[in-house]
Amino acid sequence: MPSNTISNCEEFNSIINNGRIIIIDFHADLSSCSQQLSDLSETFERLGVDLYNVNVDEADDVVLEVDVRVIPTFMVFKDGNRVGYAEGVGAGNLHKLMGSYVAKWTAFQAKK
After folding, report:
1. Is there a cis peptide before residue 72, judged by omega within 30 degrees of 0?
2. Are 47 and 23 within 8 A, CB to CB?
3. pLDDT digit string (tens) for 83-107?
4. What does the CA dihedral 97, 100, 106, 108 come to, rounded to 10 degrees?
């Protein structure tokens, strides 16, 4: 499952409030971290996690709303709240970020 593009604040707010775990890749263009996130998309799909991306050059309203200052930035959202983020991440930090928040939320969901 490739990630979907968010192009404005209206889409962004709708997506982060949909009740699912959302991972958003804020990028300027296709980077190696973006590709690594895309490579993990099947795993996240099985866990019930949705992947999205925001090109910071094309959706500046979204970038301003969440205060992205470093590219790439990865953010994790649940129920409209940012529950985790990593700025300027490498592959190791990306796996750690996603593993810690996704595991936490999927364990929570399993208890419901």
Report:
1. yes
2. no
3. 988 887 665 666 677 666 666 555 6
4. -130
